[in-house]
Design goal:
Number of strands: 5
Radius of gyration: 34 Å
Largest sheet: 5 strands, mixed
Strand content: 25-35%
Length: 126
């Protein structure tokens, strides 16, 4: 007569216990969801970067504008309404150089008028 074998020492043959199956499926689903979220975040970041480069304005100086015009790199210039009469006014100048828009702020002042300190401006035009 053969001694009875206990289940604790039985060889590991056959299918895995039922408790491991759903866990492995859950791990695969979680991995797929994580990868999908990572791809979506990467795509959103690239879209934001592209939009920022194409639609954003780069702060530049009035000398940068003059140099770009001299080199023939400027395709369009837009100037906010300037001085009407006497005094001084802040004028915003925007121009396109290649794919990038540049912006600078200057003060337009009447001749022989003192120019106030209005923060960051790149030039005073008279």
């Amino acid at each position: 007569m053969e001694p009875a074998r206990s289940l604790e020492h039985a060889p590991a043959t056959g299918p895995a216990p039922a408790s491991q199956g759903p866990t492995r499926r859950w791990d695969r689903r979680l991995l797929r969801v994580t990868q999908a979220v990572a791809v979506l975040l990467l795509g959103a970041w690239l879209a934001l970067l592209t939009f920022s480069v194409l639609e954003g304005h780069r702060a530049s100086s009035y000398d940068d504008l003059r140099a770009a015009i001299r080199d023939g790199d400027v395709s369009a210039v837009e100037v906010s309404p300037g001085l009407r009469g006497r005094g001084s006014v802040t004028v915003r100048i925007t121009w396109r150089e290649g794919w990038v828009d540049h912006t600078t702020t200057v003060i337009e002042a009447s001749p022989r008028r003192p120019v106030p300190n209005w923060g960051e401006v790149s030039a005073v035009l008279r």
